[in-house]
Amino acid sequence: MSIQLRQICLVARDLAPVINELETILGISRCYVDPGVAAFGLENTLLPVGRNFLEVVAPTEGGTAGGRYLDRRQGDGGYMVICQADSKENQQIVRSRALERDIRIAMESERASWNICQLHPRDMIAAFLEIDWDSHDDFRGNWEPAGGVGWEDKVKQDWTVDYLGVELQGEDPLALAEIWGAVLDVEPENHGDNYTLSLNNVSLRFVREQDGRGAGLGGVDLKVADRDSILAQARLRNAYVSDDRVDICGTRFYLHD
Hints:
Blueprint: E1 3-11, H1 15-26, E2 42-49, E3 52-59, H2 65-72, E4 77-85, H3 88-100, E5 105-110, E6 114-119, H4 121-124, E7 128-134, E8 160-170, H5 173-184, E9 189-191, E10 194-198, E11 203-208, E12 216-224, H6 227-236, E13 240-242, E14 245-248, E15 251-256
Parallel strand pairs: 1-3, 4-7, 8-11, 12-15
Antiparallel strand pairs: 1-4, 2-3, 5-6, 6-7, 8-12, 9-10, 10-11, 13-14, 14-15
């Protein structure tokens, strides 16, 4: 089975300032707005990171799941890990493994050529885990949450090249890694106090929560081509933390050459 990280979703109180920071600091460009998220009381924008995507959603009304998540994690931050399975059969296997472990399905949608299965963040502890499948079966091309195709000319890799990993935090990194590993059928690898799961294109890294915000999607590892430009823009916008890290939308972005 092959599972590819295709999209990271962040949640923010206000959408426009966050999109502006992501574009300006990371050197990436917006590519798609999904009108369908309005049904959940949200607005969004997607930006390609290589051939994958970074999405930000923001509540447009009260009482939304996104709004409750903002309250629970005390502000903007990571929200969803969205992956693509290499077949409908393998997507359904992931779904079955989750149900066998009493992990609830928060939302699912089965269509003729595209299926979504979203696992509940309370049961996955740190974030929503979404596994999608579409009939194109193309890890570098068609992606329905970004409108299918038409985003390719918005890919900019002069500064930020691609994802390398995702950092998920909690009180017990091993227990967290074991939950995600059981659903994804990947054995956790021990790295001292941290644990990792290897997907097709990234590592999921499980660490102890140390920022006082509780369990959640705390960071993203980025492969970068122009660290200096990213850091210069981060300094101008008070997003600079160190030469290896900038913080945007309550999320730690770790820079790797």
